[in-house]
Amino acid sequence: MFRRYKILLVIFSGIISSAYGQSAFEFNGKTVLPGTKEHFTIDISDGDRHTSIPITIFHGKEEGPVLGITAGVHGYEYAPILAGQQLIEAIAPEELRGTVILVQIAGLASFLGRSPYVNPLDGKNLNRSFPGRPNGSVTEKIAYYISGNIIARSDFFLDMHSGDAPEDLMPYTAYYHHDTKLEISKIGRQMATNMGFDHVVVFNTTGKEYMQEESPSLYCSAEAFKRGIPAMDIECGRLGKVEDLSIEKIRIGVMNLLRQLKMMSGRPTLSSTVNIIEERSYINSAETGIFYPSKSAGDQVQKGMALGYLTDFFGRNKKEVYADKDGIILFMLGTPPVSKDETLIVIGVLK
C-alpha cells in the first residue's frame, strides 16, 4: 500500500511539473512541488550540543534560478530575521520563477540565547566559521550544512545582517569583487545597486587571504563568492533593535532583488541616488575604557572632525577620537564599553 502511494505521488508530481514547466525541488529528502512552499527544521548536533536551522523553500511554478538567502547568521541581529518572517507571506511561489531557499535563522542558539556575535553553545562566531567542518563543533557544522546544502545549490546568494547589540549602523548593501572574478563581481554589483538602498559598499577581496584556495572563506557570503556565485550582503538595522523601518527596508530590498533577477514580475523600486563606497577607514580604540560618541552612524564627517572621546573607569579623559578621512559613518560603537584595539568607527569614503 505504501509503495503504491509513493508511485502515485511520483506520478502526481510529474503531472504538476509538466503543467507548470518546472520540475519538483528535492530538499532534505522531501519533494517540494512547483508553486508551493515548504518549511524545514534541520537538526544539527556535534554529539554534546544540539540546535536546529529553520529553512523555508519557495519553489516557483516556472523554471528559473535558485536564490539562496541567509538571515540570523548573527542571532542578535533581529531586523533581517523578522524581515524573513514577513517574506514567508510576501514571496508567492505561484508567481515565482525559480526557487528561493531562505534560512530563517542560521544561528538559532544565538537568537534564543540573546547572544551577540557568537553561538553560546561553543563560543564560536558563525560568520568566521565558513565553509565549516563535517566533524567540527556545532557552529562549524552549521556552516558546513549551509555551505553544502544552500550555498552550493544557489545561482545567486544574499546574506542579511544588521547592527549587533553594541553596533550603531547605517543601512547599506555590499557586494564582493575580485580582479580575477570580474563577471560575477559585475553581477553582484548589479544586485546590490538595484535594491533601493542609497549606499553600496564594495568588498574588494583581491589579495585577501580568505580568497586563497587553501584558506577558509570565513564569511558566509564570501563562501558563495569563492565558489563562483554572485554574492552580496544587506546591512540594515542597529543596536540589536526591532525597528519597523529597518525590517520593511529589508523586505522591500529582497522583493526588489527578485524582480531584478526576473524571478518575479514587475520592476524594482530604485533609489534616486546610489553612492558607491570603495574605501573604508577603520578607527580603533587606543585605550580600554568608556567611549562617549558625539556622532551617529549615517553622519557625514570631515577629516579632523571630533567624533567622540575615551575615558578611563574613573571618568578621566584619556583620548579624543577624530575622523581620519572625509566620508560617512557606516558603523560606530553605540555602547559605552570599549577595549584597546577594538573598532570604534568605520568611515565610508565617498567619491
Tell me what you see in this structure.
- This protein is α+β, with helices and mostly antiparallel strands and 351 residues long.
- 24% of the residues lie in helices and 32% in strands.
- It contains seven helices and 20 strands.
- The protein has helices spanning 2-20, 78-90, 108-112, 138-149, 182-193, 220-226, 244-260; strands at residues 25-27, 30-32, 36-45, 50-59, 62-71, 97-103, 156-161, 167-169, 172-177, 199-204, 231-235, 275-277, 279-284, 289-293, 300-301, 306-311, 317-322, 327-333, 337-338, 343-349.
- The strands form four sheets. The chain has a nine-stranded mixed beta sheet, sandwiched between helices. Strands 8, 13, 15, 18 and 20 form a five-stranded antiparallel beta sheet that branches. A four-stranded antiparallel beta sheet has the order 17-16-14-19, with no helix packed on it.
- Helix 2 (78-90) packs across helix 7 (244-260).
- The chain is globular.
- It starts with a helix and ends with a strand.
- Mean pLDDT is 94; it is low at 1-20.
Report how far the terminal alpha carbons are from each other. Answer: 69 Å
Tally of alpha and pi helices:
7
Radius of gyration: 21 Å
Q: Can you tell me the overall shape? A: globular
Largest sheet: 9 strands, mixed
Q: What strand order characterises the main sheet? A: 3-4-6-5-7-11-9-10-12
Low-confidence stretches: 1-20
Summarize the amount of helix as a percent range: 10-25%
Which structural class do the helices and strands define? alpha+beta
Order of helices and strands: HEEEEEHEHHEEEHEHEHEEEEEEEEE
Strand content: 25-35%
Arithmetic mean of pLDDT = 94
Secondary structure: number of strands: 20
